[in-house]
Amino acid sequence: MKVLLINPPYSRLRRTKECTEMVTPLGLSCVGAYLAGRGFDVAVYDANYNSLERLPRFNDLSKLLAKFELYSENLKTRDNPVRDEIRDRIEREKPDVVGVTVSSPIRGAAFVVAEVCKEVDARIKVVFGGYHPTSCPEDALSNVCVDAVVRGEGEATFAELVARFSDGGLPVGVQGVSYRENGATVHNMDRPLIENLDELPFSAGFLRGAVTGKVPVQYARGCPYNCKFCADRLMWHGRVRYRSAERLVDEMEAIVKETGIREFTFVDGTFNLSREKVVEFCEVVIRRKLRVLWDALVRADRLDDEMLSLCRKAGCAQMNVGVESGSPRVLEDIGKKTDLAAVAENVGKIRRHGIAAVSFFCVGMPPEKPEDLRATEYLVDTLPHDFVIINLFTPFPGTVYFEELKSLGLVTSEHDFDMYGYKAPDNHFTIDTPREEYFSCRDEILRAANKANRKGKLAAKLLFYNLGFYLRHPRQLLRRAFRLMGF
Ligand code: B12
Ligand code: SF4
Question: What is the pTM of this model?
């Protein structure tokens, strides 16, 4: 059985890079490595990236929003070079099964992939996995080109599903799978989470040729918090499972050896949930003298000088802080449970240790009133960060806010997932702030972010603070320059 795993061409259909760093999804490499370990012939195709194509990347979010209509147009246009490229690749690889990773905003691009598969050969089994099909299996299966959905953690479920396909049978009883039978949708029982993550194979082998930016790695799955806008709990049920630090560093070493790449990005929802685990990881990296750079998503209220100093010694170049809002009232409502005074103090601390501090804000959450949005604007303007990323609130199925908005009739069964995303112009979900007023506050925040980002010059700072590393490893510098040029 030949399996081809595909990342849909969301950014390429938008004709812009919508993330500051593009990375090939770790979820695909994880399921790919697991299947390969069970004897299947597996390849990964990142259709969201083409090394010959230069896509503009805008730090100015308003420019990104202005280009969004291209996405809707390109989803409809059949005559499109990206579509042709996908068709060529599928014709060349001749897969029996295609697995596609899908989050809600990229579902339209994923449907394009499914449709092209069936145009090439109707016998190809198309399987969707990831957050969107996990929360909305019916929506995924509403497209006749999708044969089955893998809900939740994908490794064991997908391996069993592909084995079933190779026997020519329907996925009856395969835990974690939804599929169609005689016109009806069947949802098999959920599959329990894997107990010991150290049993999973390394995903490094699958990144060769597919990796675009930093290599994504994962220390733990799950987060015990339940912020109302975040979908983490849908996938990992609020349980935190760590890999051992030794195994994680073994994997990073293998990646350096196999690909030569020494820059990593942690995809953990919150990297610093456990101080003890962070310290353990850093000590292993330092003891083994592994020369790498990495970044991670952190909570600002769980940092201290000793931990930051150790992280820096272990190669931490950047910390991405989930600030979310400048309003204590909104932070209370979303359940983030952070104290803004601690955020301000710790963002400064991160920088004093030579680590770049990037603040993430989620703008336009349901309870936000104009005064809350102005408080966010003030924080964007005054926090001592090196860079600011503004994500526009998007209601994701499976989150608390999605359910709240549904019960208020602000998200209906007509909800068009293709229209909304962190960088989509039409997002408006503030309950008490009317559309025009919200857009005006939002645009003020975007202006403040632009100002902060001009001041910050993140790229220069990363280069300056890590100059020793880059001089010792000039290939990494070339990779960085290539990415900054928009490739
Ligand atoms: C790293 C990350 C990114 C990276 C990498 C993107 C990627 N596709 O992995 C970047 C920065 C590029 C990114 C971008 C976006 N992201 Co993001 N991202 C994350 C983050 C922090 C970790 C994802 C990860 O790697 N997890 C580790 C791997 C191992 O887990 P996994 O991806 O879930 O994969 C497992 C299962 O889902 C399943 N699976 C996944 N894919 C497949 C495919 C098949 C065939 C099968 C069988 C199984 C399977 O098996 C995997 C192994 O068990 C999560 C938040 C979180 N805490 O999880 C958000 C998250 C996934 N992102 C999210 C979103 C919305 C986006 C964007 C759409 C933002 C936007 N513009 O609106 C873009 C989409 C870009 C893209 N082309 O995919 C949402 C998705 C929510 C939803 N319902 O859709 C999340 C959950 C954050 C949130 N708000 O709650 N993201
Ligand atoms: S936003 Fe961060 S802290 Fe909150 S639930 Fe998601 S991963 Fe956990």
Answer: 0.96
